[in-house]
Design goal:
The protein is of the alpha+beta class and 475 residues long. It contains 21 helices and eight strands. Among the domains are: 86 residues, no CATH class; 47 residues, no CATH class; 132 residues, Glutaredoxin. α19 links the parallel β5 and β6.
Length: 475
Amino acid sequence: MKNSGLKVFLLILAVIHCFASKSMAQSLPDDSPGDLYNRFNTFTQINLNEASALVCIQKLAANKMGYNLLQDLVHNSYAQVVIDRPFPAGMDSAKIKKGIILRDFNKILLATIMQDTSKVLVHMVKPLFIYSKIETAAGNSVQLAALTDQFIKEELSDTDIYSNRAGRYALMIYGRINAIPELKQQSEKLFKIVYDHLEKGQIPILETPNRYKSEERGWFRYLYAYANYIQSQQENNLTEKKAYLKKAFDYSPDLDDNNHKSGYFYDMHLILENGKDSFREDYLAFLTEQASNQDDLLATLVQITLQQPEYKPQLKTAYSKAKGNEAGFAQYWMENVNQNAKAAPPISLSMLDKSKFSSKGGTGKWLLLDFWGTWCGPCRAEHPDMQKFYDSTLKTNTDKITFLTIACRDTEDRVKNYMTDKQFSFPVAMSDNQIEKTYKVPGYPTKLLVTPGGKYVLVPFGVDWISFVKHYTDL
């Protein structure tokens, strides 16, 4: 991994933790799950105190309401200070020394946690603990073999490889031992077991929004995609290699996974280190290199473009090569969008100016929906850019696209005062307290694109939504 990338990654994590801690610490009651989470991080990363850290994590494990926070704490926060990671080249020696002290302290603490009487706590940390011991045993094949056998027996005998992220650590162990000749047989056994668990653990796309289940779905898909990518890199038979790359392509994060990236974000960085978002381009590169059938290449590109519409120019070029010209591309694009989208329920809402907005889908125009509220900080933060986009693009293309924002969990007076105070003029309708449920809005802000054919796609969180909309709609 490049040092610059590592620096950015560590900085991002530090900033995320800092903001989370500050925002939570101001209002959380003592010994609440959030308070225990923050204090544990303080005692393991800033003011090192083994006894205090142990009390915090014991209390968190004993609180049934804190189970999800316990998972996050152990595997997304604590794992980072336990796992050995290279220090960036040129880092100040004092900082390196401090980092080593921090890591060694937490490895000792982890061993202490493993002696706890709480089955919940021991179950949660054990895969991380065994992996940490494997790191320490580097160069000792006998110890590595024994620890790998222990991991297979104790952590992979059950189909549950998610609750304590055993699947993550299995792939990390594989990465450490696969190149050791005398451990080849064990590494292959380990990989086959975790591969089978990942394959059987796949979760269909959810009809009812559920954050934690959606994160689990994204986790299983990403790790299974990566496992197939590993297989492809070890396969010399081109037919088999293509099949593995195709699976890696198919299970790379889709739009729903991208909206729940927290489910696999840390796995992405801890397992691969370079934070590879997707394996779609690897399949595309294989098809291009092998001069594959143009229809295969086109089908691959369209799936990539549905997730990342900035690939639309490449898709158009591939379409022209496969079909002989560009005629019919617009229809081809819309057919694929509609095939991969959901049916858009009808909308009937009151606007701030008391007029009615109605849409039953299939109007022949795109419809961009934005769900927001005056109480939502991220919503308010993007409104200046939204107003500019509305003025420069949306208002001048009303024959092609309609724009509607929907204020949710709000009052008409608050919304009117907000719009007046900020001098915003984009169209606003008041939610009837049902529309966000009808469209299964997962959070705020949420943007949806309704196609001219009456289907809709969710604009992923965290992307440049203006660019996404422009590429999708050809604005």
